[in-house]
Amino acid sequence: MSFSKKPLPLALLAALAASPALVAAQTAPPAASGVTTLAPVVVQGARDASPTSGADYVATRSRSGTKSDAELINTPQTINVITRNEMDQRGVTSVAQAVRYTPGVIAQYGDNDVRYDWLTIRGFTPSRYLDGLLLPFGARGYSQPRIDTYGLERIEILKGPSSGLYGQSAPGGLVNMTSKRPTAEPLNEVVLQAGSFNRFQGAFDFSGPADEEGKFLYRLTGTLRDSDTQYQHVDDERQFIAPSFTWRPSSDTSLNLSAQYQKITSHGGGGAPVLPVIGTLEKSDTAGYIPRDRFVGEPGYDIFTNEQTMVGYTLDHRVNNTWSLRQSARYTNVDTNTRRVQIGAMVSDTQAIRYAWAFPETSHTFQIDNQLNAKFSSGPMRHDLTFGLDYLREKSRYNESSLGLMLPPASPLFDVFDPEYGASVTRPATATKINMTRTQLGLYAQDQIELDRLRFTFAGRYDWTEGTTDSGTVGSGGQWGWTSRTADADRFTGRAGVTYRFDNGLAPYLSYSTSFQPMTGVTRDGSALKPTTGEQYEAGVKFQPDGYDSFVTLSAFQITQKNVSTPDPVNTSFVVQTGEAQVQGIELEGKASFDNGLDLTMSYALSDSEITKTNVAAQRGNQLIFVPRHQAALWADYTLRDGPLQGVGVGAGVTYRGGFYGDLNNRYAIPAVTLVDAAIRYDLGRVSPTLAGAQVALNVSNLFDKRYVANCLGTAVSCYWGAERTVMATLRYRW
């Protein structure tokens, strides 16, 4: 964060050493005495009892916290999990919507952005992962993929610094999304949806064995959407397809091949319109509030497209009863293009000057993660030991046009309360080009030790990172001027934690973890900027009572980020790294699924953020952005299992998001808001056996159509409306 606005051959050797052909050729020798016996490799899928299964609301295992199959109760760090079943019952259609009931997580622009899921976790923007591999971000953050939640089995949020296993990342945490994988049992689903804003969507999910022996498994998931949005002249067209194939030549080996393609087209620019403070956060004395469907662009000019392709594989192989190998690799290509007309300044409460601009961005990313795991005993201690080597290379290109001011008399002023469209807009010429390449090579190790009731976790990682940025700007004569900057950062990070397991299901824990993030740019004397660093102390207790399908986590934490860039007092064109920020808080989350058909999720977060050091006097002591002091949420879903209403399911939820600031100067306070959601569904198989597997559902978000501001970024024209009431009807058929 800021308070002012080399490929290495070792990775190729690692990839060769653990290649599928070499690993598949190995055989498992007989079990040796005195070692821990591993279970056979299990292909993760919707019906498997695996760490990624989404059978109900309650998850008890995860790979995100340890990069291995581990019990959540043994992991000395907070991990929040949203399962497939919870997403279905709540009617989730985006990642931002999925995390709405998760403590300490904020969707920065609410849930009405077609383009991206911008999140904040414990005060910082998280890295996003899919199946344990980092998703690209691009040079400016525009060529990041949008993940379709229908293709996910679950969403996991690892709180706090995670560099000890994953490398460069923010100290608040990360989001790891798990894709649907082929299943050993046949699975077939077709979904038809219709709802608010003329939304129509179809989806399908087919999976099962491709042969009688079950050595070959397949899965094919896809969606097709044609929809308008809350905003006039902004639509949402989407095509998504994700095939995957698993080969299990033996009980010791599985190879999963996966791919996905998605194209998003949004005439109107995709993003929520940027609106003035007067008319949103503050009521206009003359005109009241700006309508929540207001579009401030030009219908013939504004557009957003995102075309993304991913191809990858995961290889799991058990060498013997002690050792196992895993290798995951993926190539990702994202190509985005954005043209928008936005408000630049208000000349009165109602009249605005607009500008046109364009900013396409592309990114190409390759990454590979190799893991060697050993499970064994040494005396009274049982070890789960992991060694890893991963490599990432991302190359991105960003072009930005000049800002084409739309001034009278050629373009009349724009009335935000009574708009007239049809202005002639020409795409401004490109004024800035940024070509960026970043690489990361990381070597990591982790040992999870079980000693009687104690569970110790120790992890350490060393990273070699390099980032090269070539920036070009066009001069008055049309000539391009280029500058090139390279930032190298080598850093050791780690994590240490301990958990104590009581017989009654209580497990108190303590942990310490660190993180780092490379920075681009130079100081006044030409020195390269150092990485920002983060550290977290966390203490808490987890509760998983025997005989109950429930899980509770209560945690207290303190995060400190250092080496934050702040303006150089001698020359404000440069920065010095004397800034520091701190976030501390308490989080509580509980989830339960009862035999009587009741599912619950509840959460609360108390957060206190502060800019502790900066050269900007007006910001010293201020709060960080997107960090409300209080958050609370409760969702309950009940399915009637007997009586005349058998097969009916009802759900209701309430979320409270406290007030916060959208800029570091804390200029505009965003008011608190309480929203209510509701759901009802019916199993049509209760009407007739011929309809077995069919279900109808109705989900409503923001039930009472509460008008609220999602955020304001600190200028007079920087506010966004929150999402209106949204209704979605679903017909689902499974067989």
SSE arrangement:
Blueprint: H1 9-17, H2 20-24, E1 61-62, E2 70-71, E3 79-83, H3 84-90, H4 95-98, E4 105-107, E5 119-121, E6 127-130, E7 133-134, E8 152-159, H5 163-166, E9 173-179, E10 187-195, E11 199-209, E12 216-228, E13 235-250, E14 253-267, E15 275-276, E16 303-318, E17 323-346, E18 351-358, E19 361-378, E20 381-401, E21 404-406, E22 414-415, E23 430-451, E24 454-474, E25 480-500, E26 506-517, E27 532-543, E28 549-567, E29 575-593, E30 598-613, E31 630-639, E32 648-657, E33 660-661, E34 669-670, E35 673-683, E36 694-701, E37 709-712, E38 717-721, E39 726-734
Parallel strand pairs: 6-9
Antiparallel strand pairs: 1-2, 3-8, 4-5, 6-7, 8-9, 10-11, 10-39, 11-12, 12-13, 13-14, 14-16, 15-38, 16-17, 17-18, 17-19, 18-21, 18-22, 19-20, 20-23, 23-24, 24-25, 25-26, 26-27, 27-28, 28-29, 29-30, 30-31, 31-32, 32-35, 33-34, 35-36, 36-39, 37-38
CA-CA gap between termini: 49 Å
Low-confidence sequence ranges: 2-54
Number of helices: 5
Question: Major sheet, described briefly?
Answer: 22 strands, antiparallel, barrel
CATH topology: Maltoporin, Chain A
Shape: globular
Classify the beta-strand content into a percent band: over 45%
Q: What is the averaged pLDDT score? A: 91
Total number of beta strands: 39
Please, how many domains? 1
Given helix and strand content, the structural type is: mainly beta
Write down the Rg.
26 Å
| CATH class division | Mainly Beta
Percent in helix: under 10%
If classified by CATH, what would the architecture be?
Beta Barrel
CATH superfamily: TonB-dependent receptor, beta-barrel domain
